[in-house]
Amino acid sequence: MSEVVKKTRSIPVYLKKRGIPPSEQNIPQETTVIESLDATSSITTIKRKDSYTEFLNTLPTLQHPSTYRVECVSTSLDTNRLMCELFSKSTMFGLDMEWAPTFVKGRGENKTALVQICDAKSILLIQLSQTKEIPIELGSFLKSRTKLKAGVNIRNDGRKLLRDYGVFTNGLVELDVMASTSQSPKLDITHRRSLQALTGMFLGQHMPKGKVRMSRWDQRVLTPIQQRYAANDAYASYKIYEILSGLHEKLPRKVKLDICHLEDEMKDFQPQKRARLSNTYTYNDKQSIKKPYEKGQPLEPRKTLSPRSTTTIVKKAESKQDSV
User: Domain containing 138: what range?
Assistant: First the structure.
């Protein structure tokens, strides 16, 4: 066993008692404790958020293997060709999305600009901001129930695709839920279940989140830094799903994999209304979206019945003179 390291932090000035010497204040100080287990174990017990950050910083930076084939496409023709060439035989995928940030208060989210797909050998980056539509093969892939797509918060990503392009995404697997049911001792490292946290726990690599995350994903040509960031996100989702699948197979009691099919969740909505959903009504799992206007619903009466322009007054005056 390695020795225990203790680090104390001084109490802020605004918490100190005024007029009393520091030696007599008797204020308990907070202690950060990091206990390292045996050398054969890769688990580190972390009891503070800042210690968790230190743990991530000790890990090597995430990078997909150099043997992976990475393609970035901006046309429907190239997308259809590579989807058939790369992913026709695979059944497990990592899926992620990116879109340009909104810095204007009150303005809604921008449309999905990039979709990343990863399997055991390839990563495909599809610029929907340039195709302006969902290519045929990508639409078939998203609607497929047998091709499982894993990610963190992947269900909400699928709903965003539905709002932006009116396409259903089926076969969705939430990695955070899958990790919670894996009974892995690595889950004691932190309570967080973000993609960055799962990457640190199960891949032993650090996924840095810098300024590139808030960059313009809808520009015509993505920079090499953007492409590398997007490819690593999809790769991490795929590898975590692969590891968690192996852990689930070793469980003494099998846990049913929770697979979400958005087409089943949205079957109560009429087709012409599904693509217009936003964030203020209720789905089956209590997430809010906006209910669209229903045909036949009475309109609110006008507050004033006065003429809205001088043209209306002139026409009324002319009609009175004609009647006389």
Answer: 49-280
